[in-house]
Design goal:
With 213 residues, this protein is α/β, with parallel strands linked by helices. The chain has five helices and 14 strands. The strands form five sheets. It has a five-stranded mixed sheet with strand order 12-11-10-13-14, sandwiched between helices. Strands 6-8-7 form a three-stranded antiparallel sheet. It has a two-stranded antiparallel ribbon with strand order 1-4. Strand 13, helix 5 and strand 14 form a beta-alpha-beta unit. The radius of gyration is 17 Å and the shape is globular. The chain starts with a strand and ends with a strand.
Length: 213
């Protein structure tokens, strides 16, 4: 299911659109303006985090193909994540074109196109927004759960799980916390993608708090 959501900082307040269908891209007034900074995230499951000391640009495809299935035509890119001392290797070739259309449409004030980066990159960037010692940041949409877990400044997990429904996404979420021996009752889970009211209430049954970033 193709779709998008956006957040706009106006007058010191963040306004979120919620999840919108692809048919709204040319009628959304916010896309007719330019902004100081534009971030475009693609929920691609084709990504892996590699320690910076192990990364070589010429080996990027081999590193990614070790953990996900790549087609011959899949383009492989990388972006540094200096906060974690790592490089995120990814492919945006997942059979969609909406992210490219957004990149061509929503420009910054200099007229430059915004790069399309994996949702995993923005999950890692969101870790400092979690004030708890146990940091759980997730996104779930289009059948994939993107999950990052850390304790303090130590990254414990960065992974993507196939989850056709929210119940399956919760299963993987709790399985990870159990394996890492983290108690959800004293943890806050932060979601970057919008949660339906029933999904948020379901998480509240187990977590100390639920935050939508």
């Amino acid at each position: 299911m193709s779709g998008y959501s956006f957040k706009v900082l106006e007058g010191g307040e963040i306004r979120s659109s919620g999840w919108l269908g692809a048919d709204r891209i040319f009628t959304t007034p916010e896309f007719q303006r330019r902004y100081d900074k534009v971030d475009i995230a693609l929920l691609t499951p084709k990504c892996t985090l590699v320690p910076e000391s192990f990364f070589r640009p010429e080996a990027a495809r081999a590193l990614l193909s070790d953990v996900v299935a790549l087609d011959a035509a899949d383009a492989v890119e990388s972006v540094r994540v200096p906060e974690q001392g790592a490089v995120l290797v990814f492919s945006n070739t997942i059979g969609e074109s909406l992210s490219r259309v957004l990149s061509l449409t929503v420009l910054d004030t200099s007229g430059a196109q915004a790069p399309v980066l994996p949702e995993m990159y923005y999950l890692l960037q969101a870790l400092p927004l979690c004030e708890d010692y146990n940091k759980v940041v997730a996104s779930w949409r289009d059948g994939w759960l993107h999950l990052v877990v850390a304790q303090g400044r130590t990254l414990l997990l960065s992974n993507v799980y196939q989850a056709a429904d929210f119940t399956t996404a919760e299963y993987y979420l709790f399985l990870v916390l159990k394996k890492l021996q983290l108690n959800p009752e004293v943890s806050t889970v932060c979601f970057r993608t919008p949660l339906a009211p029933e999904e948020e209430m379901s998480l509240y049954r187990y977590f100390k708090a639920v935050v939508q970033l």
